[in-house]
């Protein structure tokens, strides 16, 4: 049976690899992407959320996801007998 820790660890590792190669691609193409979402609209007031994806943010997300996947994998191995 596959444990939930192994599933999350593998998913985070694959996402980390994808983000890493995306960051290299963004760096090579000198590309950035800005996403804006309307979170709340009341009368004439808008609350918006803006997310910026550039090579540095993607590289940072890649490292964070890689470290998270290794922590989850280690915790599953460490807590195996408990």
From TrEMBL:
Protein name: NADH-ubiquinone oxidoreductase chain 5
Cellular location(s): Membrane
Keyword Chloroplast: no
Membrane topology, as annotated: Multi-pass membrane protein
Keywords, sorted A to Z: Electron transport, Membrane, Mitochondrion, Transmembrane, Transmembrane helix, Transport
GN (gene name): ND5
Gene Ontology CC entries for this record: membrane
Signal sequence coordinates: none
Organism per entry: Teredus cylindricus (Bark beetle)
Transmembrane segments: 6-29, 50-74
């Amino acid at each position: 049976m596959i444990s939930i820790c192994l599933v999350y660890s593998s998913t985070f590792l694959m996402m980390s690899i994808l983000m890493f190669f995306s960051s290299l691609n963004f760096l090579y193409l000198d590309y950035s992407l800005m996403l804006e979402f309307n979170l709340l609209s009341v009368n004439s007031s808008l609350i918006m959320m803006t997310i910026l994806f550039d090579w540095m943010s993607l590289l940072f997300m890649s490292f964070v996801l890689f470290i998270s996947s290794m922590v989850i994998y280690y915790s599953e191995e460490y807590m195996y007998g408990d």
